[in-house]
Amino acid sequence: MTTAEITVLNKSGIHARPAALIVQIAGKFSSDIHFARDEDRINAKSILGVIALGASHNTTLTIEADGPDEKEAVAALVEIFQSKFSS
Amino acid sequence: MKVYSLLSLGEKHKENFSFKVLVHGENRNLSHATMNRPGLALTGNFQIFSNNRIQLFGKGETAFLYQEQHNPGLLVNCKKLMQEPVPCWIFTHGLFPPKAIIDLADEMKCPVFSSNLSTSLFAIRSNQILTDEFAPRGVVHGVLVDIFGVGILLTGKSGIGKSETALELIQRGHRLVADDAIEIKSIKGGNILLGAGIRKEVAHFMEIRGLGIINIPHLFGTGAVRESKVIQLIVYLEEWTDTTTFDRLGIERHYKQLLDVTVPFRKIPVRIGRNIAIIVEVAAMNARLDNMGYNATRDLDDTMKRYMEKNK
Q: Cβ of A49 and B181 within 8 Å?
């Protein structure tokens, strides 16, 4: 399992559009990918799950990926968080 | 271990407890669901004293407090009983303590409440509410639907058609509890698994590939949704391949453990042309028949055995 801590950098938090981008990128990998926030673990490939996180500006999340391409998956997700979902 | 802010809990369940705040005090935390009757502590015996529990004062304890003028050590013991981590004092039967005790609680910043309920009723209610608040919880991925009153959690790999199946079930008059991220809680002392959406703002939206996000109560009416439901059957949708074998008779019972609660479990193979919604609907009715003690395979088997016996 590969994990990484990330912070939501964009001002408006993970609303519908960033969520769509996240699941689109997560969906390209075959690994199981989750976001952990406090006690909750959310499937990163499910758009409503990612929206339900309600992650606002400066929220810290943990990405957990488990599978054959886990390292690439975490790296790709860290990148879109750092770019504030501008792609 | 979970810790709750006492005031937020008290506010949330105000109606159930019929609370009155006698001393506001500071906002202390609650980490245990059970309560303590402080009779022994009041007499000065603090051995094995449960100081992290709510201290419950019934008629007896309260009457004892009113002897405070004749009992010089009592205030000292009370002071000890008000120190953190004691979460609060609660008086039942609408009783309240003598003024000296109220003043002491003010000084110690110990919250003091009074409830109109009897001691036993208060203990029962708070036990139920607090054990549910402190119940183990988790999040699972799936869709929770209520079909003829049976709570069914549809699970399976992403893209297998859980949401589409749920949509057809809603179209057929059943109810959606939540799509995607389901919060599960083992309540009533770990016998019952209750499911709801992890966030109620999101629970009644669904994602249907090709359509995007849809709002179920807006499309189908408020009757098409509910807030929470006990999970009575877990259905796993599995891709049908030539090599997998499936239970053809349905005699064997399979179970799955979620948060240590045992829930009946059924695998349903998915293939183009199979109407999964109808199969799940029948699974719900069958689960009800099963609960009533009827099993179709056993019935058929018994009938055929009798037939063969007769025609020997």
A: yes
Summarize pLDDT for B73-106 with one digit per residue, the tens: 888 888 888 887 888 899 999 898 988 889 988 8
Q: To probe the interface with B, which of A24, A43, A48, A50 has the most B CB atoms within 10 Å?
A: A48
Q: Tens digits of per-residue pLDDT, A19-78?
A: 999 999 999 999 999 999 887 888 898 888 899 888 899 999 999 999 999 999 999 999
pLDDT at B149: 94
DSSP-H helix ranges across B156-200: 162-171
CA distances (Å), B50 to each of B2, B33, B56, B63, in order? Answer: 17, 12, 12, 22
Structural domain includes residue B306: no
CATH number at residue B18: 3.40.1390.20
Count residue pairs from A and B with Cβ separation < 8 A. 47
CATH class of A2-82: alpha beta
Catalytically active residues of B, by annotation: 141, 162, 180, 248
Number of other residues whose CB lies within 10 A of the CB of residue A18:
21
| Domain extent for B156 | 137-298
